[in-house]
Amino acid sequence: MKQQQYYIQINKEPKPFIKWVGGKRQLITYLQKKLWKNMNDYFEPFLGGGALFFNLSFNMKKINFNISDLNPELIRSYIVVRDQVEELIESLQNHSHHYKLNPKSYYYYVRKSKPKNDVDLASRLIFLNKTCFNGLYRVNSAGKFNVPLGKYSKPNIVNKENLLNVSNLLQTLNVSIKCNDFFDVYKKIQKNDFIYLDPPYYPLSSTSNFTSYTNNNFKLTDFYRLLDLSEKLHELGCKIMMTNSNTQFILDSFSASHWRILNVQTNRTINSNPKHRTHYSELIITNY
Ligand SMILES: C[S@@+](CC[C@H](N)C(=O)[O-])C[C@H]1O[C@@H](n2cnc3c(N)ncnc32)[C@H](O)[C@@H]1O
Fold first, then answer.
1. How far is the CA of 211 from the centre of ligand 1 (A)?
2. Pocket around ligand 1 at a 6 A CB cut-off
3. Ligand 1 midpoint to CA 260 (Å)
4. What is the mean pLDDT of residues 120-147?
């Protein structure tokens, strides 16, 4: 494959390369304030777009980072960004070129296509994420990406500078990137390690569901497994920070005296119509 030269200044703080449902960019200032600074290793088992991970890791390079998510496409894309960023950028430039010629037909053509290799897979995921309605990643019960085309006049499909910065960071950090269920952290985590838990939120009402990020929906039984894990990690001496919805169920679940709860206001789109932005209250729960 032809090698390209990139004359771009790298080493700037990287940002998430993908916009993820439930992404935490809006909460970063609060999360930083509540962070346990004196950590040994860092664990983030509901990685998504990794807003907190990118924010921290750039300034804390000496720590061992363990990041994971159950979504295989997402994790394979992180690995491609780390190991094959130049091929990825070329593939995204190709998508960008064809999209400009005929956005609608090209979007649905890519949505229907099956990736031939991991570079194709990552570039398809990023392309669809940048051009789909609301930037939402959502799959149906068959595991298919089924979001319609979004209304963008000039979507930034190839953010070359950020992809190079992310790739550079992932190569220089001591980071393990895995596709795992969240409970797997229990095999490795130790006393004084820090874990950030950002699961699919507990539904705000009985008519809404846990958001579907993977084709295995996060169910109430998963939430109980998460509670069990949180108590086990507390007993082990880990420092835990979790974000979740401000609901009576969550408040009751974390009512024991070792949990501290901070209520924060954000400005989220919880309706599928982006015009319906509303103040929304979320909880940051810690055991310190
Ligand atoms: C709220 S999002 C995380 C958002 C992330 N903090 C960010 O800043 O973009 C929740 C994530 O949990 C993942 N997930 C769902 N069920 C899971 C499970 N059983 N184990 C691990 N990850 C899971 C989803 O794929 C999704 O990426």
1. 10
2. 20, 22-24, 45-46, 48-51, 69-71, 181-182, 198-200, 213-214, 218, 222
3. 22
4. 87
Minimal-distance CA residue to ligand 1 atom 13: 46
pLDDT of residue 123: 98
Say how many domains are in the chain: 2
Residue 11 falls inside a structural domain: no
Find the range with the poorest average confidence among 87-101, 136-150, 241-255: 136-150
**Same structural domain for residues 96 and 217?**
no
Question: 37 C-alpha vs ligand 1 centroid, how far in Å?
Answer: 23
Is the pLDDT score of 78 beyond 70? yes
User: Residue 146 — very low, low, confident or very high, per pLDDT cuts 50/70/90?
Assistant: confident
Residue 234 within any structural domain of the chain = yes
Domain residue limits at 87: 80-161
Determine which residue's CA is closest to atom 24 belonging to ligand 1: 213
Residue 9 forms part of a structural domain: no
Taking alpha carbons only, the member of 171, 196, 174, 200 closest to residue 185 is 196
Cα of 242 to ligand 1 centre, how many Å? 12
User: Is residue 192 located within the same domain as residue 247?
Assistant: yes
What does the pLDDT read at residue 124? 97
Contact 136, 147 (CB under 8 A): yes
Amino acid found at 273: N
What's the confidence (pLDDT) of residue 207? 57
Higher-confidence residue of 238 and 138: namely 238
pLDDT value of position 1: 43
CA distances from 8 to 11, 58, 127, 161, 184 (A): 10, 18, 22, 7, 38
* 51 close to 24: Cβ distance less than 8 angstroms: yes
- The alpha helices in 133-237, defined as continuous H runs, are 160-172, 220-236
